[in-house]
Amino acid sequence: MRALYPGSFDPLTLGHLDLIERGCALFGEVVVAVLSNPGKTPAFSLEQRLKQIKVATNHLNCVSVISFDGLSVSCAQQNKADLILRGLRAMSDFEYELQIAHTNRSLAPDLQTIFLATEAHHSFLSSSLVKEVASFGGKVDHMVPEVVAEDLHRLFN
Hints:
This protein is an alpha/beta fold and 157 residues long. Helix content is 44%, strand content 20%. The protein has six helices and five strands. Strand 4, helix 4 (91-107) and strand 5 form a beta-alpha-beta unit. The protein starts with a strand and ends with a helix.
C-alpha cells in the first residue's frame, strides 16, 4: 500500500520523521510530497527541503521524496497513492485536518485520509516553532534531524 504524506516541511521536524517511519511500518511505502507554494516565502528553498528529507530518511528504503504544486488529491492520484497520511498533534489540529479530509474526499471519493496521532514527546513540535527557536539562537537538535539542525544553524547565524 502506498501512502502520500503531503506538507510544506519547512523544515522537517522529528515529529514528521516519526510519522514517516510509522507510515512505512503500517503501509509499506510512503511518498513524502513537498508542497511548492509560490504564495509563501519558506525559510528553505524547495530544493533544500527535498534534500533535507532525503538525507533524514536515507535509512528507510520505503520512502520516496517528490515535490508538487496544486491539490494533494491530484498529487495522490498522479502517484497512485492508496491514501493520504496526516498527523495530529493536538485537538486544534483535528478540526482543520478533518475539514481538509472531507474536502479531499469530495474531490476524490476513492481516496482515504488516515490520521496518526503524533507521539506525545513530539506533540509540541511545529515547523514554525522550530524556526522561531532557531532564529533566537536556541537549541533545536532535539526537535529536528541533524541535517536540518545544521541548515538552521547556517541560516540564522
